[in-house]
Amino acid sequence: MAKRKTKPEDKKPPGHPKNFPTPNGLQKVWNDYKAVVDSDPHLEEVLTVKGDIVTIKKHRPYTRQGFEAYCFNNKYGHVCQYLKNQDGLYDKYIPVVTHIKNEREDNQISGTLSGRFKAPNLVARINEIGDLQSTTTKVQIEGISTEELEKGLQD
């Protein structure tokens, strides 16, 4: 009798049932998360020039941490394994996870660029643009022998 070949998606580690049997389930929960975030803006009280206090509604960004917390708090369990494609077990979820990542980052970037979010380094970080600078300091000390310098460093 021939052995049946198993595909990575057939591997189910014991004790780890899938929280989302299909990628559409994960997409639906992402859409639910966005609706909750969009309907619950951050309220900021601002003092006007006239001395009045005005409440301003500020949009909240979509975040990976917020999505993971939303899933856990709403009994969907942990979703990090889907987002990371842990052990190659979630290959069929890659298109949905890619969409979630792109939509999340677009929300953060467009929100920052339009002034809705105050995160000046966010766009650079997401796009992996760094202001890397290397600084070398050369110190020249006159009148001290190498032995005295090394002794001072050891103390």
Concise synopsis of the structure shown:
The chain is built from 6 helices and 2 strands, in the order αββααααα.
What does this structure look like?
This protein is mainly alpha-helical and 155 residues long. It is 43% helix and 8% strand. The chain has a domain at 32-128. A hairpin with a 5-residue loop joins strand 1 (42-47) and strand 2. The longest helix is centred in the last third of the chain and has 20 residues, at 94-113. 10% of the residues are buried.
Gyration radius from CA atoms, angstroms: 26 Å
> In what order do the strands lie side by side in the largest sheet?
1-2
Total beta strands: 2
Q: Please give the oligomerization state of what you see.
A: single chain
| Alpha plus pi helix count | 6
Mean pLDDT: 82
What is the H-and-E element order? HEEHHHHH
Structural class: mainly alpha
The amount of helix comes to 40-55%
Shape: flat
Q: In terms of per-residue confidence, which ranges show pLDDT below 50 for 5 or more consecutive residues?
A: none
N-to-C terminal Cα separation, in Å? 75 Å
Strand content: 5-15%
Largest sheet: 2 strands, antiparallel
